[in-house]
């Protein structure tokens, strides 16, 4: 018979240890390793009764069976539906995280009322706020007439009993860290409790076809708190992001089994709640006017949506031994690489200059297609030459200095054309509409020559 041993679990990341330690080697947290109460046997061991019983053979099937396509549940919020892939899927489980105060509860209350007004039996269950607080928010948002059901509680046993009795079609839990199961001696919010409660709720959603939306807290690093297994249990993981001092919010899907990952929905926070932004390119572009040096318009793609934004660069002579490099909204390592390419392949020296690069509007860009726009903005500031008006730019630059093609080039040009951009600076190989004036480039040196010709 296997001897019972104690198991120690990091309450920040869920890493398991055989003995206690002051620091977690997996995430670096101090004093976060605690004993997992209720563990009576080491992992992988079986009890005597379980070892004596025989398992039941699982029925095997082939790939050519009939598939019943479930109709999605529209929420009435086009940006939310876009982020989740076109609507909520019955039996699907979603996990939404975000910083405190970003508007998660406001968004989900609007989603819950939108579902209820379209005939979906919806239950909003809060473990953090009292009923009076939720009603005050609903009154401020003008949602008090919605037929949505509301409840508060944290006991997992009571919640499951309520769900089995009410049989809702959609359930919103705010938040998973507040729930606790009396079958476990651990405190609410610990790894054991979060994992157990999430498993029970996801199992209920899969068995009944109910849509489950969970709210998760985030750590100081911006990651969802709790064990990583919770993100693997659910079908979609979304982050609700906000830039300090900005009124817009971005709902970004980092995992989605029913739609495109990295799809985004954009909202604007107002006194009446979160409003959809149907034309985000206009939100992130400047006000227009006279062309300024160091400004370049990038035609990007976020998920499946084309999005235009402005890159701003400032290059100034440095008096320091090590010139400064500051980047906001883009990858600093990517900037260092492009500066090395411009120096080595194009003869443009930035070694005695401070370089500052910013994506206007607080947007964060991660795709390599922004290389050409960043380089154009840097050259425009370095040569003190404004780029032409109504010019959109996209393209990836390799270490050899070659400008490489990027995905969905025609979609980028169509979006730029729709917003009145008549000129495109892009890699060779783009087709697009012949009515758009395009300048195809093959090398980074071509971009340098193009900017110099504007002087």
Automatic annotation (TrEMBL):
Keyword Metal-binding listed: yes
Record GO biological process: recombinational repair
GO MF term list: ATP binding; ATP-dependent DNA damage sensor activity; damaged DNA binding; hydrolase activity; zinc ion binding
Keywords on record: ATP-binding, DNA damage, DNA repair, DNA-binding, Hydrolase, Metal-binding, Nucleotide-binding, Stress response, Zinc, Zinc-finger
Domain of life: Bacteria
Record CDD domains: RadA_SMS_N
SUPFAM superfamilies, per the entry: P-loop containing nucleoside triphosphate hydrolases (SSF52540), Ribosomal protein S5 domain 2-like (SSF54211)
Role: DNA-dependent ATPase involved in processing of recombination intermediates, plays a role in repairing DNA breaks. Stimulates the branch migration of RecA-mediated strand transfer reactions, allowing the 3' invading strand to extend heteroduplex DNA faster. Binds ssDNA in the presence of ADP but not other nucleotides, has ATPase activity that is stimulated by ssDNA and various branched DNA structures, but inhibited by SSB. Does not have RecA's homology-searching function. Plays a role in repairing double-strand DNA breaks, probably involving stabilizing or processing branched DNA or blocked replication forks.
NCBIfam families given in the database record: sms (TIGR00416)
Protein known as: DNA repair protein RadA
């Amino acid at each position: 018979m296997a001897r019972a041993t104690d198991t120690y679990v990091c309450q920040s990341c869920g890493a398991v240890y055989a003995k206690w330690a002051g620091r977690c080697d997996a995430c670096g947290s101090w004093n976060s390793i605690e004993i997992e109460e209720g563990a009576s046997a080491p992992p992988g061991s079986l009890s005597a009764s379980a070892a004596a019983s025989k398992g039941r053979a699982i029925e095997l099937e082939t790939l050519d069976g009939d598939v019943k396509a479930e109709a999605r549940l529209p929420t009435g919020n086009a940006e939310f539906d876009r982020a989740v892939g076109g609507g909520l899927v019955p039996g699907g489980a979603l996990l939404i995280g975000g910083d405190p105060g970003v508007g998660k509860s406001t968004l989900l209350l609007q989603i819950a009322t939108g579902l209820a007004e379209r005939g979906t039996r919806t239950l909003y269950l809060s473990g953090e706020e009292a009923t009076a607080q939720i009603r005050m928010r609903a009154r401020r948002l003008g949602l008090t007439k919605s037929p949505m059901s509301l409840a508060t509680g944290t006991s997992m046993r009571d919640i499951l009993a309520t769900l089995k009795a009410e049989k809702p079609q959609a359930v919103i839990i705010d938040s998973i860290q507040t729930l606790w199961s009396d079958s476990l001696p651990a405190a609410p919010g610990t790894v054991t409790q979060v994992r157990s409660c999430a498993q029970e709720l996801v199992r209920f959603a899969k068995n009944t076809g109910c849509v489950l939306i969970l709210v998760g807290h985030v750590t100081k690093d911006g990651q969802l708190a709790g064990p990583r297994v919770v993100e693997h249990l659910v079908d979609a993981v979304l982050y609700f992001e906000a830039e300090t001092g900005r009124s817009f919010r971005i709902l970004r899907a980092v995992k989605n089994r029913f739609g495109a990952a990295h799809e985004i929905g954009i909202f604007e926070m107002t006194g009446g709640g979160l409003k959809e932004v149907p034309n985000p390119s206009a939100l992130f572009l400047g006000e227009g006017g006279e062309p300024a040096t160091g400004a370049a318009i990038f035609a990007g793609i976020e998920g499946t949506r084309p999005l235009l934004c402005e890159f701003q660069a400032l290059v100034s002579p440095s008096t320091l031994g090590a010139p400064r490099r500051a980047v906001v909204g883009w990858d600093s390592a990517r900037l260092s690489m492009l500066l090395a390419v411009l120096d080595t392949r194009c003869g443009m020296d930035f070694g005695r200059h401070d370089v500052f690069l910013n994506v206007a509007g607080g947007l964060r860009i991660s795709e390599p297609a922004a290389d050409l726009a960043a380089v154009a903005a840097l050259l425009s500031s370095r040569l003190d030459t404004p780029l032409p008006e109504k010019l959109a730019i996209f393209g990836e630059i390799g270490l050899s200095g070659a400008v490489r093609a990027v995905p969905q080039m025609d979609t980028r040009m169509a979006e730029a054309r729709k917003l009145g951009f008549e000129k495109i600076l892009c890699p060779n190989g783009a087709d697009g509409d012949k009515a758009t004036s395009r300048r195809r480039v093959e090398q980074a040196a071509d971009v340098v020559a193009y900017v110099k010709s504007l002087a």
